[in-house]
Structure formats: structure tokens, C-alpha cells
Design brief:
197 residues; mainly beta; 7-stranded parallel β-sheet; disordered N terminus
Length: 197
């Protein structure tokens, strides 16, 4: 596995590469992260305290997982991907290189986010003081490279967001969203079915 580091059991037993930080203490009352068996955490990655991760976790280089995040089994967090905390990510999820997941985001099972997907959680950045609410990506959603999903938007189960799309409104289940702003249309036959991640 080259420069990768393997880990099993609890994060308190972590004896990984000195270039990783597993258990970044952000608060005096924080607790070490819990990481399942058979994890591969590559150099430069930082995982904060108060994170719970299932089995089969894998990162690229320089990934960031902030506090109060829950991640299921068999999840890839790609190189330079940022999960800004206080979010829930299901199992069998693939977050490719450079994906940004803001706080207060919900991601279901078997979801794919292509390179440089950007999810957002603030409808009025620095203009109004509002509660942050990230998007919800339901099970089996696929998001193409460089797509952007705005705050509090729900992407329905099995939908496909095209590369470069800017999603400003909810997308129904099993729908194709394409363009900026994204327009919804029937999911083509070749895109039907569930993700196999």
C-alpha cells in the first residue's frame, strides 16, 4: 500500500504515520475519534476528536474530517476533500478529490460525489446571520465533477447531477439535473439503477 497507514480497533490505539493527525483536540472536553477496522489513512490527513467512522474507511492525502461527524462503512474521502463537521455520511460513499462538505449536511448510502463537488450551507454568506443547513443527498445519488449544490436542497434518491450543474432547488427522486441553474428532466435509461460503490 505504499505510503498508506493501516488501522484497526479504536483511535486511541492509533500508531500511524507521523504525517497524519488522528484525534485533533479542538476542545478541552472532546473525545478521541472512533475508527472501525481496516482503515487506510494517508499522510497529511487530519481527523478531529468526536468523530465516529465505520469499517473500511479510506482517505487520499491531506483529507480533513472535522468534529461531530458520523461516517458509515466503506467510505472513501479523497485527496484534499474537506468534511467541515457536524454532518452525517452513510455507508459505501465515494467522495472524490477536492470535494467540499459543509457542516450540517446529510449524505445517504451509496452516494458518489465527483471531483471538486461543492455543497454549501449558508444562503447569505456574511450578509445575514442565519442557521446553517447543508444539502441532503439521499441514497444512490451521483453528483458529477465541479457541480455545486446550494443550502437546504434535497437531492432525491437515485438522482444524477450532471458535471458543472448548479442546483438551486430540490431534485425529485430518479431525476437528471443539468445546467446552471440546473433544470430537471427524466433520468435517461443509461443512468437508471442504483450505485454500486
Amino acid at each position: 500500500m505504499g505510503n498508506s497507514t493501516r488501522k484497526t480497533k479504536s483511535a486511541t490505539e492509533w500508531k500511524g504515520d507521523a504525517r497524519t493527525t488522528v484525534g485533533y483536540e479542538y476542545d478541552g472536553d472532546s473525545s478521541p475519534p472512533v475508527i472501525g477496522d481496516d482503515a487506510t489513512i494517508r499522510p497529511g490527513t487530519i481527523i478531529y476528536d468526536d468523530v465516529v467512522i465505520g469499517d473500511g474507511f479510506s482517505t487520499g492525502h491531506d483529507a480533513l474530517v472535522r468534529e461531530l461527524t458520523e461516517i458509515g462503512d466503506d467510505v472513501l474521502v479523497g485527496t484534499k476533500t474537506v468534511i467541515d463537521g457536524r454532518s452525517t455520511i452513510g455507508s459505501h460513499v465515494s467522495l472524490q478529490t477536492g470535494v467540499y462538505i459543509p457542516s450540517h449536511t446529510q449524505i445517504g448510502d451509496s452516494v458518489f460525489c465527483g471531483p471538486h463537488t461543492v455543497l454549501t450551507n449558508d444562503p447569505y454568506p456574511v450578509r445575514q446571520d442565519v442557521d446553517l443547513k447543508g444539502p441532503t443527498l439521499e441514497d444512490h445519488v451521483s453528483v458529477g465533477a465541479n457541480a455545486t449544490v446550494l443550502p437546504d436542497v434535497t437531492i432525491g434518491r437515485g438522482s444524477f447531477i450532471a458535471a458543472g450543474a448548479v442546483v438551486t432547488e430540490d431534485v425529485p427522486e430518479e431525476t437528471l439535473a443539468i445546467g446552471a441553474p440546473a433544470q430537471c428532466s427524466q433520468l435517461p435509461d443509461r443512468l437508471q439503477g442504483e450505485n454500486e460503490i
